[in-house]
Amino acid sequence: MATENPTLSNGFITKYSDIFIAVAIVTIVIMMIIPLPTALLDLLICVNITLALVIVMVTIYNVEALDFSVFPSLLLVTTLFRLALNISATRLILLNGYAGDVIMAFGNFVVGGNALVGFIIFVILIIIQFIVITKGAERVAEVSARFTLDAMPGKQMAIDADLNQGAITDVEASKRRLKIQQEADFYGAMDGASKFVKGDAIAAIIIIIINITGGFVIGMLTRNMTALQALQSYTLLTVGEGLVSQIPALMISTATGILVTRSASSKGNLGLDVALQLFNRSRIFYIVSGVLLFLAIVPGMPGIPLGALSVLCFIAARRLKGSEKAVEEVPEQKKAEKAKADATKPENIVNLLQVDPMELEIGYSLIPLVDTGQGGDLLERIVMIRRQCALELGLVVPTIRIRDNIQIKPNNYIIKLKGIETARGELMLDHYLAMNSGTVFEEVPGIETTEPAFGLPALWIAEDQREQAELNGYTVVDAVSVLATHLTEVIKMHAAEILGRQETQNLLDNLKKTNPALVDEVVPEVLVVGEVQKVLANLLAERVSIRDMETILEVLSDYGRATKDTDILTEYVRHALARQISQQYVQNNVLPCITLDPGLENHIAGAVQRTEHGSYVSLDPDAMQRLLASLNAELPKLTNMGYEPIVLTSPAVRTYFRQLVERSVQGLVVLSHAEIEQTVELQILGTVRI
């Protein structure tokens, strides 16, 4: 990523840079229209050479390509500038037979005043630029652009994976995504900008042919020159002008090649990379020294230069050999010193006390699920799970650490909460899980298993059986979906444990951005963060979303001064969230449920014990057994018809009835009449009695 130069951040050039660029482009256009004095043309030619040198030096000293991300646009401007100089010089050559001292010097001094030699040198420069450098740079830019675009999805997924695992922050992730986008834009622009260099080389060939032909005709017809004089004079000037133009063009072509061929693994500028990679093995220079020495003693070969180079290579090899030994000794010495220091200093026990909120341990056979290089998308699924939990529950799930564990079976995985195993399952890669949802009319062969999230009987089937199983009525999912579903259910089931005081504070801080008055009124004036957290945890324990924090805090503000009992406050909040709770369970405006006998409700209400620490219910064992027996007898009236097990009670006993049965009847939903909208029709299918 391009970095700001602090020495220019407030300087004159940076302050008026937009004006300079605009004036420069307008000046280039004017140069094509208005004839220039020879002195001004000499100055602009020198500016062109200087600019080319600066660009080459910048590309050499850049660490990565994006440090010079403006290069494609600059390449267009310099190409236009060079063509404008060609036009101005051509105009002066054809009109006056003279185009300034710089062009004359290149025509006389550089090529010795010989037009033929100059023409040959010009052709060689064109061949080097057009066929060698430009063609190669164009191909590298094209391939780099294609590969960069192809690699974008993988890089984005890798960033999401690092962010999900907590390896990087949101800010760092944004910077990396921006850099990936800039790389794609840069190499795409370079793919097109390389065509400017190619077109410039072609234009130079055409211009020199036109200049020689035009000068030859003008010299003979208007200046009374002989054919030989006209050819010598105008060819010399044209070749001088071509060399003046093509030498900067060659430098910029070289800069283009350097920029697009820089590797992403570069450790510094070009010179440092060359030094590190070219002079890193002494054996190579020993071999080269020996070969040069052999050539030096061959009869007819120039012995002195070859012998001198052989000696230089031998000296370089000796120095590199000493450096290699020093490099090998330093790490060993540091390693020994570190081991000695570690052995003497006390162990830092504090680091061992860190407990991850959530962990996912996988066997080594399941590693492909998290390896994006092998097509694994579990990390992306986890990002989607966290987003889904935020939308459905209003809970920001903490970072889920993923580790491989060789101590468990290869196909097993373990889900941990705060370091304690909460759930585990088994997957078979390259297989699909087929579940009978009650619509199967013909079974398929497979490996019997149990779906881990809901405990349903299922089959592992091969990939070629998938289509047939779906036709037979099975619900078929892949292995990663099984794990993702299990992880989602574990999060929903234990959401109350996941929500701690810090997470609650984060939710309050987020609400404070839009409604600071409400947050300041409740916390800490009415309730402390811990009491708010207990209310939210009570809601999550029954899978009630806490996303509507504004309504929740308004209720706590209204009733928090009257009572600090978090169970009672939770009931008030549930009443305020009646519409949300109703929509969660109502189907077609009908709520199928079973109710409690009024006598049972009175019995429960009479058994409530209130203390300074809260309220609880205590039934005698006989009444408790009869209650559970009646409940278990009534629930099949709902579940056998495909309905969710819902018990409807009066508001006064809802929380106490749930306390009685929550451990004995898993998945039971207990609602009160105050949590059901008046427009909802109740379909009572049974009554619990004792």
TrEMBL record:
Transport recorded as keyword: yes
Database matches in InterPro entries: FHIPEP_1, FHIPEP_3, FHIPEP_4, FHIPEP_CS, FlhA, T3SS_FHIPEP
One Pfam family of this chain: FHIPEP
Example of a GO biological process term: protein secretion
Topology of the protein relative to the lipid bilayer: Multi-pass membrane protein
Localization per record: Cell membrane
Positions of transmembrane segments: 19-36, 43-61, 73-94, 106-132, 201-222, 243-264, 284-317
Biological role: Required for formation of the rod structure of the flagellar apparatus. Together with FliI and FliH, may constitute the export apparatus of flagellin.
Family: Belongs to the FHIPEP (flagella/HR/invasion proteins export pore) family.
Protein's recorded name: Flagellar biosynthesis protein FlhA
Species annotation: Selenomonas sputigena (strain ATCC 35185 / DSM 20758 / CCUG 44933 / VPI D19B-28)
Gene transcribed to yield this protein: flhA
